[in-house]
Design a protein that fits this description.
CATH topology of the largest domain: Endonuclease, Chain A
CATH superfamily of the largest domain: Endonuclease Chain A
Distance between the termini: 56 Å
Number of strands: 6
Shape: elongated
Structural class: alpha/beta
Number of domains: 2
Order of helices and strands: HHHHHHEHHEHHEEEEHH
Helix content: 40-55%
Strand order of the largest sheet: 3-2-1-4-5-6
Number of helices: 12
Largest sheet: 6 strands, mixed
CATH class of the largest domain: Alpha Beta
Strand content: 5-15%
């Protein structure tokens, strides 16, 4: 049984629109498949964003659906072309798993990223020295060249905030993230200084969930929620685990994690209080460096 890639944001948007047009026209999946010389499973994969659609297939389907709007045809053709376009991460395909490349695609297209991290500073905020230690511990068998490539990927990822229209980023850190010594006191002091430097609400907001809150909605582990500007695009939840990642797109699942994030944020320190705590912990590390 051939495997099909997880849908990119653009493929999902294209597939959702083709499905909407087909259903509006009252055309069955079997008839659509016959028009493009395929089968029902192919139409299903295309409408779910798991298989690309060629320009000729788009034109044939739109004709079948009675769509004559040139602007819509152009927009869908553009989505199909962009869905096939490789992102910057493709050049690191020899070291990045398919799952991580999917994550980068999801991250790159998001208009808003909501992150909760109870263990480590997220990759988008890590200094080179902090990232170096994290990668050294996670990739003990990797060559130095491979580790250096991972560091480079981290740095390129962070350029998302330098774009003309960067995503809004709201990051909630458990207090343990501030106090867990990664790489030694000097590395931690510099990392916490970076957090103080980049925090700039409302575009990039960092808040801390303090130890005093006890048991909270994030005790089950880190997660990210990716929101998109187009209502046709489904929001995505990303969960990390030791050997990969899990993506949730079902509306009920996304809503549960959105509720958990809102609960966590309600228990977090204010941005000002958070930065005061970060500054205090940074001074503690700096005194030991």
């Amino acid at each position: 049984m051939p495997s099909h890639p997880r849908p990119t944001v653009r493929r999902r948007r294209l597939g959702a629109e083709l499905k909407r047009l087909r259903e509006k026209a009252g055309v069955s999946m079997e008839d659509a498949a016959e028009r493009i010389g395929g089968d029902k499973p192919k139409i299903s994969r295309q409408e779910n964003g798991r298989q690309g659609v060629s320009k000729l297939e788009i034109e044939a389907l739109l004709a079948l659906y009675g769509v004559s709007d040139d602007r819509l045809r152009t927009a869908l053709t553009t989505l199909a072309r962009e869905g096939r376009r490789k992102g910057w991460w493709a050049q690191y395909g020899d070291i990045l798993t398919a799952g991580f490349q999917e994550w980068l695609s999801i991250e790159s297209d998001a208009a808003r990223i909501l992150a909760f991290q109870p263990m480590l500073v997220p990759g988008l905020l890590q200094t080179v020295e902090y990232a170096t230690e994290v990668i050294r511990c996670a990739e003990k068998d990797a060559t130095q060249e491979k580790r250096d490539s991972y560091i480079e990927v981290r740095k390129v990822r962070q350029e998302i905030f330098a774009r003309d229209n960067p995503p809004q980023y709201v990051c909630l850190l458990d207090e343990a993230v501030l106090r867990r010594e990664v790489g030694g006191p000097a590395v931690m002091a510099a990392q916490l200084a970076r957090i103080l430097e980049v925090n700039s609400p409302p575009k990039l907001t960092i808040q801390v969930v303090p130890f005093g809150q006890g048991w909270h909605a994030g005790v089950h582990g880190p997660f990210n929620i990716y929101n998109y500007p187009d209502p046709m695009d489904l929001d995505v939840v990303n969960l990390d685990y030791l050997d990969g990642a899990l993506y949730l797109e079902e509306d009920d699942s996304v809503k549960r994690y959105q509720f958990a994030f809102d609960e966590l944020r309600a228990t977090a320190l204010t941005t000002r209080q958070s930065m005061e705590l970060v500054s205090s912990v940074r001074r503690e590390f700096a005194m030991r460096a």
